[in-house]
Amino acid sequence: MTPTPSTPPSRRRLLQGLAAAVCLGAAPWALAAPYPEITWDDLMPADWDPTKPFRDLQKPDLRSDSDPRVQALYDRLRKVWDEAPTVPSMAGRQVKIPGYIVPLESGKNGIREFLLVPYFGACIHTPPPPANQIIHVRADPPVKGFKTMSAVWVSGTLGLERAGSAMGASGYSMQAAQVAAYTNK
């Protein structure tokens, strides 16, 4: 079928893309489908309760940030959250997820590596979110036009890879296929 002015625009684009793929030697089924959108909740196991390890704390009598018990509690929280479980079935999935950028490696060519986090200020203020709420994103080529805490949509392939950084531990990795400014659909 050859696209004509009477062919609906969406079908016309599909046919043009299919024709381009065939001309370039790609198999028609290799055309990239849109990345399905996921939420941050999808990255947490359904049975994981991040408060469970802290049920022994009723009303902690902590006087100030300099109290050694505050640091002990913080260290305990970091250990539990850095070891937060991931969802094995997410490995290898192509997804699209919104979040905020926390740059790890950037330069004049843009941001090559960053953490994607679910809420504004995460990883900048302590404590950072649990590892299953942080995605270590690699972008090649580097992305331009974004800065710390820019709201973005990131599309790519998820991996289960724990990595530590000064900003927090990530439970997921992603090779970004696209990073775009966030829009509310």
Layout: helices, strands, pairs:
Blueprint: H1 9-23, H2 68-82, E1 94-107, E2 110-117, E3 135-143, E4 151-165, E5 168-181
Parallel strand pairs: 3-5
Antiparallel strand pairs: 1-2, 1-4, 2-3, 4-5
Quick overview of this protein structure:
This protein is an alpha+beta fold. The protein has two helices and five strands, in the order ααβββββ.
Description:
There is one protein chain. It is built from 2 helices and 5 strands. The protein is of the alpha+beta class. It folds into 2 domains: 1-31; 40-181, OB fold (Dihydrolipoamide Acetyltransferase, E2P), CATH 2.40.50.870. Strands 1-2-3-5-4 form a 5-stranded mixed beta barrel. β4 and β5 form a beta hairpin.
CATH top level label of the largest domain: Mainly Beta
What is the percent of helical residues? 10-25%
User: What would CATH call the architecture of the largest domain?
Assistant: Beta Barrel
Poorly predicted regions are: 1-31
Computed Rg: 21 Å
- Percent of residues in β-strands: 25-35%
Largest sheet: 5 strands, mixed, barrel
- Total number of β-strand segments? 5
Shape: globular
CATH topology of the largest domain: OB fold (Dihydrolipoamide Acetyltransferase, E2P)
What is the first-to-last residue Cα distance?
32 Å
Averaged pLDDT, please?
81
Q: Structural class given helices, strands, pairing?
A: alpha+beta
Looking at CATH, the homologous superfamily of the largest domain is: Protein of unknown function (DUF3299)
